[in-house]
Protein 1
Amino acid sequence: AQSVSQHNHHVILSEAASLELGCNYSYGGTVNLFWYVQYPGQHLQLLLKYFSGDPLVKGIKGFEAEFIKSKFSFNLRKPSVQWSDTAEYFCAVNARGNTGKLIFGQGTTLQVKP
Amino acid sequence: GAGVSQSPRYKVAKRGQDVALRCDPISGHVSLFWYQQALGQGPEFLTYFQNEAQLDKSGLPSDRFFAERPEGSVSTLKIQRTQQEDSAVYLCASSQREGPNTGELFFGEGSRLTVL
């Protein structure tokens, strides 16, 4: 069965620090990959996605993620975080050929100190 | 409305009661998903509709859980004889596409169910 593992459950950074959140998935076939973000009191929203092509994808608000197929990883990065990036981040995967349902990781809570 | 709307936002039920949670997807969206999110966890897939057809219900935890989308728009998730372990946030998501490349899911704010 597919699964997604996020290595960091709770990350605390100061503003301007660099961010990298780890995500690994287990599935042998072709996948689509996503990062979703949930700001306090808001609904989940898409940060970025990878379907095919350039494995380095750029999303909103300066976030990017790199798909490394050999490592089954899709880590999220941002060079310089802001206080407004405080949120919960979820990595998700769906296997091509299924109904499109997403399998989510357990999430990483990011707290950025001003 | 512009987004996915869920109601009620909060529901407190006594153990053994039946509850119904409603989802209004974005107009015209073909695909609709229900997820369950326990405290401190990521969303877990419950069921998937393509229009009115329930194509995947593999994530429903027991036969006490039932979902429908009779006209291919609004969906209802019903939980019968609620148990304490059913306490969670129930998320609805929709997408304008169908099948393997559903792409971006648009989520509602969720319905938080507390079973006493």
Note: The first strand of chain A starts at residue 3 and ends at 6.
Protein 2
Amino acid sequence: EDQVTQSPEALRLQEGESSSLNCSYTVSGLRGLFWYRQDPGKGPEFLFTLYSAGEEKEKERLKATLTKKESFLHITAPKPEDSATYLCAGGGGGSNYKLTFGKGTLLTVNP
Amino acid sequence: DVKVTQSSRYLVKRTGEKVFLECVQDMDHENMFWYRQDPGLGLRLIYFSYDVKMKEKGDIPEGYSVSREKKERFSLILESASTNQTSMYLCATGRAPGYTFGSGTRLTVV
């Protein structure tokens, strides 16, 4: 059974305090590892896809990395507007890219 | 940008009612998905469709059915709503690498 586990469940940071979120996965025939951001009352918003171990992608203060078993979302000098739930998902299981989601990390950045 | 529209943001239904949740996308994508999201459980796939009139069960299809008569529209049907189906329902569409989600329908069954 495909499984995606995120840690920690919740993280509180001070503005400017860098940290990382973890996503460990066991997904059969992994074809992509996805990161999404979700704000309260809204649907998830796509951030990154990583396809192979060693790959890195960046967007503003966020950088996602991938190993054979884990992915990390590094947040550098976060701002209060980075506060959200960050979701990790593994895509696999054939050509239809069915996603298996982790439960998410709720990030709060205090000013 | 792809737009995914879910017909209702909030819905309150009675136990035993038949409930229809509608999702429309404007970009001619083949794949469409229905997820439910619950605190502590995350997003779980209910059903997905990769073409008109085609559907496949996801991880938690019990108590649900779907309909896809036109490419742009994917409907989730609760045959007889129960209180344990109170949840946030999210529709998604797109091609790899990233899917686009709708804003969700928060359904309460009383």
Note: The interface with chain B takes residues 31-32, 34, 36, 41-46, 49, 87, 89, 91, 96-104 of chain A (CB under 8 Å).
